[in-house]
Specification:
Structural class: mainly alpha
Number of strands: 4
Bound molecules: zinc ion
Number of domains: 2
Shape: globular
Helix content: over 70%
Length: 427
């Protein structure tokens, strides 16, 4: 094993250590601070709720420790058992001829990658089941039946299979056709693929799992129509989703580019929040659209993918990379998988930057909602209701939230809105 790979394996294990360290740091902090409610929220959050959220987070942290141990063992097993090499021999023995115009090597590559992805999905089952049917069940967050879980699981496998096939076969072709510069053509392909999934995802993929319905006629819809007119946003793009069939969590999101873009409000949110609060959340989601956040994430994702493909193109024929994983000879498919195993932990260390950028977008959307509603009150109270319903800890360790959180904490968001409100009054 070359020194370069010792270094890479060092990064792999450093990542597991950092992950564990952050988890424990946050758990210890919550044990000390998570039982009291910060003075500012004492009138709106009861200490019982704060304690419940803390207990919930601590239980998940404990599972998180096992999860890290499990991942580390799996990683060691993959490296030292030569599983990727064994898989390579297996696919070559199973697939011995091409199909129609598809060459045999492409089919072998497809089977290789799919087997790996599906194995990873299956390995994640025990932890997923425990979190859903034990922890979430006890904390009254879960509404999923085992039958629904099973259906989601198989639909998920089917989706992975279709999406991987649609991307991988053209990618193999591009790799064959363009020689050392395949990554340029490959980038165009990946971006086009990503664009199509951004546009069609909300219309074709999400409905496989959830039922989307336009907002029902009534008082809420009338109020939404009024707000949409004021914000110059199309009412057609607003849906509710049957989130309550799976969980009691309150949520809303904006997704998609172009024709099928939509703001989605969970039925749980509509049930728990007042009309004013729902409107404030809606305005926040419209704020994401007005600030072009989806387009910006798309561009950011594109840049990441182009860089990844370029690095992959440099490593694709580097024999020691394959040997380190027990794979006898270079191939597109083994190269792809090894690259994914190696790049995951490296990308992990870019998480704080991505989280920081995402939080910046959340502040922008909050600010937009504040202006749309003319007051911070409805969004603030909506956030309190969301945080308490979802059992999010009110006081995570600042370092932990800075590293992982895609949304600022409740205290941070409320403080930013108060600050902005002062600004508006002074203007
Ligand atoms: Zn948001």
């Amino acid at each position: 094993m070359g020194s370069m790979f010792l270094l890479l394996f060092g990064v792999l294990f450093l990542q597991k250590l950092v992950k564990l360290g952050l988890l424990m740091l946050n758990a210890n902090y919550l044990r000390q601070h998570g039982l009291q409610v910060p003075a500012k929220f004492q009138t709106v959050i009861s200490s019982t709720t704060a304690q419940k959220a803390t207990q919930y987070t601590l239980e998940n942290s404990r599972v998180g420790v096992y999860e890290i141990a499990y991942e580390t063992i799996m990683l060691l097993a993959v490296i030292f058992s030569g599983a990727l090499g064994i898989l390579d021999t297996w696919v070559a023995s199973v697939v011995t001829q091409g199909l129609w115009i598809i060459p045999v090597t492409y089919l072998q590559g497809l089977l290789y990658v799919l087997t790996f992805f599906i194995a990873i999905t299956i390995l994640s089952i025990p932890i997923d089941l425990y979190k859903t049917f034990s922890i979430d069940q006890r904390y009254e967050l879960n509404n999923m039946t085992f039958k629904l879980w099973l259906m989601d699981f198989f639909k998920g496998i089917l989706l992975i299979t279709v999406m991987t096939t649609l991307l991988l076969l053209p990618l193999f072709l591009v790799m064959d056709l363009f020689g050392a510069y395949w990554w340029i053509a490959g980038s165009l392909l990946v971006v086009a693929y990503q664009y199509v999934s951004y546009v069609l995802g909300p219309a074709l993929i999400y409905p496989l799992f959830h039922k989307f319905t336009p907002i029902a006629d009534g008082e809420l819809k009338d109020a939404i129509r009024q707000l949409c007119n004021k914000l110059n946003y199309s009412l057609q793009g607003i849906y509710t989703v049957d989130g309550s069939t799976r969980s009691n969590r309150v949520n809303a999101f904006f997704s998609g580019i172009g024709k099928f873009k939509r703001v989605v409000l969970y039925d749980t949110l509509i049930a728990k929040l007042s009309k004013e609060q729902t409107l404030a959340v809606l305005a926040h989601e419209v704020g994401h659209k007005k600030h072009n956040h989806i387009v910006k994430f798309f561009l950011l994702g594109t840049a990441g993918k182009v860089i990844s493909l370029w690095v992959l193109s440099l490593l694709l024929n580097y024999l020691p990379m394959y040997q380190a994983f027990g794979v006898a000879s270079p191939s597109y498919h083994a190269g792809l998988i090894i690259f994914m195993v190696l790049s995951g932990p490296i990308l992990y260390f870019t998480k704080p930057l991505v989280s920081f950028y995402m939080r910046k977008c959340e502040y922008e959307a909050d600010n937009y909602a504040l202006r749309a509603m003319g007051s911070s009150e409805p969004l603030t109270t909506a956030l309190v209701a969301t945080v308490t319903s979802n059992l999010n800890p009110v006081t995570p360790h600042p370092f932990y939230s800075a590293f992982y959180y895609s949304h600022p904490t409740l205290a941070e968001r409320v403080a930013a809105m108060e600050q902005a409100e002062k600004g508006i009054i002074c203007e």
